[in-house]
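can u do me a favor
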């Protein structure tokens, strides 16, 4: 599953690289995507609430019901709202992956 901004979803930022590794992305419904976008805006404004976390848990559950085996948090704000301890499916923080890859690449210089 993937959770990201509307722009990231429309542009398919992760689609090709995931397809190249044999991963099929499970996307949120249109209604769930609108909710994710609002939660991201709430986090930008510093106004997220427990209700936002609960909504993300439900959206993640919906993605799991659609066959997702893990959830890519493809927005820097989302790991600030939802933690692994709050869900029963692996969460993958895209920002953390970028940092690890940058460190790996810099060690090869």
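np, heres the sequence
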């Amino acid at each position: 599953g993937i959770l990201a901004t509307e722009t990231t979803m429309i542009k398919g930022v992760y689609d090709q690289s995931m397809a190249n590794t044999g991963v099929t992305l499970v996307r949120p419904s249109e209604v769930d995507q609108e909710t994710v976008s609002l939660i991201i805006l709430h986090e930008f404004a510093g106004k997220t609430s427990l209700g936002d976390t609960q909504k993300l848990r439900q959206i993640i559950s919906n993605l799991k019901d659609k066959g997702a085996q893990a959830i890519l948090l493809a927005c820097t704000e989302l790991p600030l709202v939802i933690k692994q301890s709050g869900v029963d499916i692996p969460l993958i923080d895209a920002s953390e992956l970028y940092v690890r890859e940058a460190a790996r690449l810099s060690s090869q210089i």
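The longest helix spans residues 50-65. hope that helps!!
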